[in-house]
Known about the structure:
The structure holds two protein chains of two kinds.
Chain A: H1 7-42, H2 49-70, H3 78-100, H4 109-131, E1 147-149, E2 155-157, H5 158-179, H6 182-192, H7 194-199, H8 204-226, H9 238-251, H10 256-276, H11 279-296
Helix pairs in contact in A: 1-5, 1-8, 1-9, 1-10, 2-3, 2-4, 2-8, 3-8, 5-6, 6-8, 9-10, 10-11
Chain B: H1 3-23, H2 25-30, H3 42-45, E1 56-63, H4 70-89, E2 97-104, H5 109-122, E3 128-130, H6 134-146, E4 151-153, E5 166-168, H7 173-188, E6 192-198, H8 201-216, E7 220-227, H9 235-244, E8 248-252, H10 256-267, E9 276-279, H11 284-290, H12 292-295, E10 299-302, H13 311-324, H14 332-351, H15 356-362, E11 367-368, E12 376-378, E13 384-385, E14 389-393, E15 399-404
Parallel strand pairs in B: 1-2, 1-3, 3-4, 4-5, 6-7, 6-8, 8-9, 9-10
Antiparallel strand pairs in B: 10-14, 11-12, 12-13, 14-15
Helix pairs in contact in B: 4-14, 5-6, 7-8, 10-11, 14-15
InterPro entries (chain B): ABC_urea-bd_UrtA (IPR017777), Leu_Ile_Val-bd (IPR000709), Peripla_BP_I (IPR028082), TAT_signal (IPR006311)
Pfam family, one (chain B): Peripla_BP_5
Signal peptide (chain B): 1-37
Amino acid sequence: MFEGYTLAELGSIFAMQGFAGLILFSVFVLMALGLAIIFGQMGVINMAHGEFMILGAYITYFTSNFFLNYLPALFSVYFFVAMILAFVGAGALGMLVEWGMIRHLYRRPLDTLLATWGLSLMLQQFYRSVFGAREVGVELPQWLIGSLPVTDVIEVPINGLFVMALTLLITVAVAVLMYRSRWGKQVRAVMQNRVMAGAVGIDTEKVDRYTFGIGCGIAGVAGSAFTMVGSTGPTSGQLYIVDTFLVVVFGGAQSLLGTIASAFVISQAQSTMEFFLSGSMAKVLTLLAVVGILMLRPQGLFVLKVRR
Amino acid sequence: MSSDNHQNGLPSALRRKLLMGMAALPAAALLPKAAFAQAPATSAVNTTGLAVTDTTVRVGILHSVTGTMAISETGSVQAEKLAISQINEMGGVLGRKIEFIQEDGASDWPNFAEKAKKLLVNDKAAAVFGCWTSASRKAVLPVFEQYNGMLYYPTFYEGLEQSKNVIYTGQEATQQILSGIDWVVKEKKAKSFYLLGSDYIWPRTSNKIARKHIEKNSLKVVGEEYFPLGHTQFNSVINKIKLTKPDVIYAIIVGGSNVAFYKQMKAAGIDLSKQTLVTISVTEDEILGIGGENIAGAYACMKYFQSLDNPNNKDFVAAFKKMWGENIVIGDVTQAAYLGPWLWKLTVEKAGSFDIDKVAAASPGIEFGKAPEGYVRIHENHHLWSKTRVGKAKLDGQYEVIYETADLMEPDPFPKGYQ
């Protein structure tokens, strides 16, 4: 397929393709982080993850409308406000859900799958009844639209850069929180042995609630960011859920590093194959490869060694 | 309903009666009473036990108002309810007011079949207006054929189907595709095409027809690609498009993927005012989600655009907004759904009966002059003769109509040489 192109042209196509892979990588990490915390640290299979993302997207939509109508002068920075609100909103809903539903199911992880799946259906219908069945268009500030021309052929999408920067920031924040803070230590202690953690004086209920809240909050931020590259509608969350689980399970559920590594492998494989094959075939091959590797290594790419 | 619409209604109703009278001349010899009687006896117009009384007739509306497809089907429900209320204001059908029972298909195909059976068997609906996806239509088709019901199906679709029990008020694939490609070849001097689509039957069949038509004209298809429904990352294919530099991107991507596709094209610096893009899957409804600024400059091939400039459409848009709110948009399928109840009314009045067999037999040749898209007529094959139009997307989310075929396009659900 490369006959008739100059070396320079090919070079720039590969550069752009590499960049496309990096954007996909950032998107995968961003959408998987929240789930990695909830699934990996708490063992809760949160099927409503996508709906928490879409809550963030709707919050972004309403924030943008609010700024357009009441604070048009500040419209160019509304996105940052929207992301904070999305974190708070989705996080608060997450804590509510944890209190009302999840905490009764910690000893029955498979039941959380059914319960959260039901929750996801309820949230979808709630969005549909309240916000309308049609998709909404989120208006972006001017500086987030368009691309930076590097050369004549290479153009870098600005919103792609934004997603990459955001992903980096949140990943670092989560890593610090999990592995460098006292609170992170408590979370890991509860995950490893709930009874013993309680015995040494950790308030396990509180830790659980905040962990779930933070996971959902990060999902909200991801949803907010994805209004730049995707759709916002009652069922849009479903578009992300399969890829999200794929990344988390493939990486080894309890390892943050695993999530990142698996997002990298899957995104690069997918984006490279999509370039040489068609979109559907690329997806099939990626899934096949993941299934194959998981058969050989059921625990995922990375695994935490703990004594039980 | 506004009062001026009511005034408009009278003369046009008269004109329609005249038109119909002429169309029905041969039939009138067999059924002399039907053409004149205001409200003929129920026993005469309903011999098969449908839900018809001396004052009412019951029909069904069967769309998804919950689940994934609610996003698309909501407009169709609204259009059908508007048409039914307008028909009732004009005195109903054969002197009987239309009552409707609405069932929710819930985006679940077996559920559609279940509800269709309920509408036909329990409710004895004289007609059903409904379905949107081909999958739901395929699910209910055996039910309609087994229990002898009448379905008015609004969506543009891939063709390859024809049934006594279905009237297809949207375009089949060739009606939407052929003249659109002819237009872009002539106007844009297009030589090469890149075909894109979501991975299911409608985009695949449509692109197959498009490819044959392109290659018949000795032009080139430089790429053809499909993406799983719900695909959200298009950067790789956008790079391929940049590499192959096609004259035309021909896109049949549906649902949430659409939004991702156009946003990422824009972000990647593909300027639709320079790069020609033709779509047959983006109506004004979808632009709500995509955002006018992301798709302005693209061309769409449809039979109806909300901005069509004719008196019928002005009345229709005004009535629609009055009933459903000022900010609502109306897409191609919504208009096709609006035709359903009207075509059924005209057919019943021509047949002089609600009986399904008589309605099915009377359908070919039914003309509707007040359609918002302009005059339409039902073909022998139960699809509609209608014009094809090309619109250019504007920033405000509406299309500017820049081309329409001179004549009505003949529906051809089994196109020879394109399969």
